[in-house]
Amino acid sequence: MKVRRYLRGSGRVLAFVFIASVIWLLFDMAALRMSLNDVNSQLLKERVIRERELLKQKPRVTELVKGGFKHPVQRVRKRWDEGHFNVYLSDKIPVDRAIPDTRPEMCAQNLVHDDLPSTSVIFCFVDEVWSTLLRSVHSVLNRSPPHLLKEIILVDDFSTKDYLKEPLDKYMSQFPKVKIIRLKERQGLIRARLAGAAVAKGEVLTFLDSHIECNVGWLEPLLERVYLDRKKVPCPVIEVISDKDMSYMLVDNFQRGVFKWPLVFGWSALPEEYIKKHNMTVADPIRCPVMAGGLFSIDKKYFYELGAYDPGLDVWGGENMEISFKIWMCGGEIEIIPCSRVGHIFRGQNPYKFPKDRQKTVERNLVRVAEVWLDEYKDLFYGHGYHHLLDRKAIDIGNLTEQIELRKRLKCKSFKWYLENVYPDMDAPLAKAEGLVCEQLQQLVFLVCFCLLQSQYSASLLHDSGFGLQPCDNTKPELRWFHKSSNSALVG
Ligand SMILES: [Mn+2]
């Protein structure tokens, strides 16, 4: 009992000592920790100061670039020239991305016939960017009813990039509908399209650019128009995929393709009165005087009845004018279908390489078109600054017999009819001088010419005063008659 009591008494003391030491230990640890923190923060401060000093000596970006780091902006710039748009970003975006359905509201409710013709979609490309080409193909595969899509034909116009050879064959082999044709030498867009059309098995040909994205329900409204009338040539509304950030952007309603002198393609809104007069809604087909050329559907048989494209046209340029005049003047119609929408990457610079001089190729093509289709209005084409093309010794436009024969055989209407009925808001004044009054100074040292209309020049014959009348002669720069009109694409 005594022992137990003793223990009880000393136990209290022991417990007190124990608790006191624990408290002391805790205090001690706290103090130690605080002092360590002090040291740490001191060290940290010193380190920051040291690093700042270092950064001042060597700029950070340079260090990072040396270490292989590249800012995205630098990567974008580096890869821009591969396609003249943001190739870097295109490669980062899924090849089957979703895009906003931009159709006018009523389009989704539109019904189409259930026995529409099938189509072959033809893409021609040369050195197209991998991700953009794939996105174009996937958008067709994903957004076209399978029974309407006969096949997709990829025409490789002699690309130089290795990834468009075996890797493309391998990738596309997983899609039985995709066929690839390889041209053995560079043919240009026009002949590449003809090569694609020649093997197409669908009843309708649908030509598309290789840097596009077809939108929801794009195909049915096009085929419906061909179904209703095989001579209708429908084009989708071409929307804009930004070349900078790849975003999908809407375009204005009621836009149609037109031309300005000297046969320059452009867009123009339908006149307000026309929309009111015809009670048009935003979903109605729009009569289109000239197609942009890149995207359209056409009945295959009708395409060949029209002689396809003039095979004498070279590479690229003017072929949209040729087929447009031909369709309208020979009984067909070109329409823009607002319920069909396709996004297209518009590039600031055309990366399309021409085997020969670009300017000369396009001009030569345009002369062929003007000579075959423009009748007396070809004067307006030459008169808007293309006089030099009249010199056939300098420019060989090739043989036109077949094209002129074709126009006769198809009993096509005149260009005057086209202007009056298809493009009545076009300004095409056929004013023409038969003579130019020239002032002769200092024995033919130079000539100053004044253009006068036929009615004016007889009164202006003033030989005695040094003026003389000379017939117009387009081969001589000083005796050329220039046209000027409000529908001129030329500045000034
Ligand atoms: Mn294009």
From TrEMBL:
SUPFAM superfamilies: Nucleotide-diphospho-sugar transferases. The chain crosses the membrane at residues 12-32. It is a single-pass membrane protein; Single-pass type II membrane protein. GO terms for biological process: protein O-linked glycosylation. It is found in: Endomembrane system; Membrane. InterPro entries: GalNAc-T (IPR045885), Glyco_trans_2-like (IPR001173), Nucleotide-diphossugar_trans (IPR029044). GO terms for molecular function: polypeptide N-acetylgalactosaminyltransferase activity. Its cofactor is Mn(2+). This is Polypeptide N-acetylgalactosaminyltransferase 5.
